Amino acid sequence: MILQVQNIHKSYGKQKVLKDITFTIDKPEIVALVGPNGSGKSTLLSIITNLLSAESGEVRILNRTNKDLGIFREISFMQDNTVLYDYLTGFDHLQFIADLQGLTKEQIMENAERIGITSYLHKTVSNYSLGMKQHLLLAMATLNRPKLLILDEPLNGLDPTSSIKVRNLLIELNKEGTAILLSSHNLAEIDRVTSRVLFLKDGTLMDEDLSQFEQACYLITVNQPLYAVELLQKSGIQTVESNEKLSIYSNDTSIHEVISLLVKNELTILDIEKKVIGSEDRYRKIFEAEKDIAL
Ligand SMILES: Nc1ncnc2c1ncn2[C@@H]1O[C@H](COP(=O)(O)OP(=O)(O)OP(=O)(O)O)[C@@H](O)[C@H]1O
């Protein structure tokens, strides 16, 4: 077991921000935490890393409580760039972590090389762009080659080239055995790196078994779409009609029932298209009632 989050509750004053959050990461995988602005992602990550305390619940990392300071040799938390000091260089930041963790200058340089920050390593952070700061934060978080890497918005403010670089680096670290939990608003990027997405809504983690969203969406074009909708709904099959196409969330087996029902009722099927459902579609489905969809 790499991470076990159990029944976490957290409020700020009267505002309940996290309600009974439970999930686990059992193997080295890349898991994303997604939710609108203010949904509690940073709060949850700070509780997991013991920077904030929960009202109730428990976090265990690598089979130890997160109150055990020893685990910080084996995990890392990349926060936003407010943790950086403008008047220090990138190297100073890395040296500080290396001193705390008993790591060598060679390890600093090797990691800096890997992240691609050697050319500005000895400049003060006040001269860094947002992307350069993100890369330094990533170098700081990966210096100890953690077993669990937690990242709050690692892709924030990165241009496409930098995003690709960070994405590839995360995939590489994961292949080497690092489990990764990251929060992000970049849903297209999330689909490229993650194996699992946790959606936070109103302080609650949506059921991890999002089977209804895991199903494919079939777009079916028929000669009488409105009649088809009526027929399908009578048989308990939910469908939406737009631009004369029917959208049906279905698995591969039950789509056969839909087709035979349409054919039996003498409708002509003009086209069938299978659409892969990505995190953005799932996000819209989960948060469609939200007034301010924050992507
Ligand atoms: N120290 C604090 N005191 C009071 N309220 C807070 C505090 N920190 C966060 N909150 C509130 O808790 C809620 C969750 O905030 P949090 O920063 O965890 O959300 P988030 O999902 O990370 O948001 P974002 O995507 O904008 O970074 C918000 O309503 C926020 O205003």
TrEMBL record:
Keyword ATP-binding: yes
Domain of life per record: Bacteria
Molecular function per GO: ATP binding; ATP hydrolysis activity
Keyword line: ATP-binding, Nucleotide-binding, Transport
Gene3D superfamilies in the record: P-loop containing nucleotide triphosphate hydrolases
Domain ABC transporter positions: 3-227
PROSITE patterns: ABC_TRANSPORTER_2 (PS50893)
Family indicated by similarity: Belongs to the ABC transporter superfamily.
PANTHER family: ABC TRANSPORTER, ATP-BINDING PROTEIN
Record protein name field: ABC transporter ATP-binding protein
